[in-house]
Amino acid sequence: MREHIFNHEYIEDKELVFDILKKKKFDIKYVGLDKMNEEDNYKMHHYKFMIDKEIFDYYEGVGHDLIEDNNKYDKILNALYCLLQDSDTLNLFKTIQDFGREFGYEDYEKAKRVFKQCRIIGVKLGRVFTKEELTHLRLNMQF
Questions:
Q1: Contact 87, 121 (CB under 8 A)
Q2: Nearest Cα to 130, choosing from 19, 48, 47?
């Protein structure tokens, strides 16, 4: 993973990010084409992403390359970045109404469901990283 971190143009303090991530066990497995939820009209590439013992669902659009041996760590870094962004939603929006307005949700229940998923991601990330580690990762992984 070190090589992928140090070759990544959007990671600032590469040594710090590597020092945090090298302590964790990562894996990512392709599940197949799937909808993120039953309301979606389109399918995406669905992955199971693991950090230590925490498992996350991760989706990418069909325009992205599928996982292969040569891009596995890039997929891991991208998945981690997306999870960090999702979990950071809780820091940016204190209410579901604010969240829904910002992202254009007209259906309160759908906004509530997505907001709750962001909270779950944040809780799971908090189980594998310290608050300080999460802050460093958010500040240094700007894809």
A1: yes
A2: 19
Cβ proximity of 20 and 133 under 8 Å: yes
In the prediction, which pLDDT does 67 show?
A: 96
Q: Which residues pair with 49 in a beta bridge?
A: 28, 56
8 Å CB contact between 115 and 97: no
Convert the pLDDT of each residue in 90-99 to its tens digit: 788 878 999 9
Q: If you compute the radius of gyration of the chain from its CA atoms, what whole number of angstroms results?
A: 16
Residues β-bridged to residue 51: 26, 54
In contact, 105 and 111? CB cutoff 8 Å: yes
Give residue 135's domain range: 2-140
Does the pTM surpass 0.85? The reply is yes
Summarised one tens digit per residue, pLDDT across range 64-114 is 999 999 999 999 999 999 999 999 887 888 789 999 999 999 999 999 999
For the chain, what is the domain count?
1
Only one residue has tokens 């999870």, namely 83
Distance between alpha carbon 113 and the CA centroid of its chain, in Å? Answer: 17
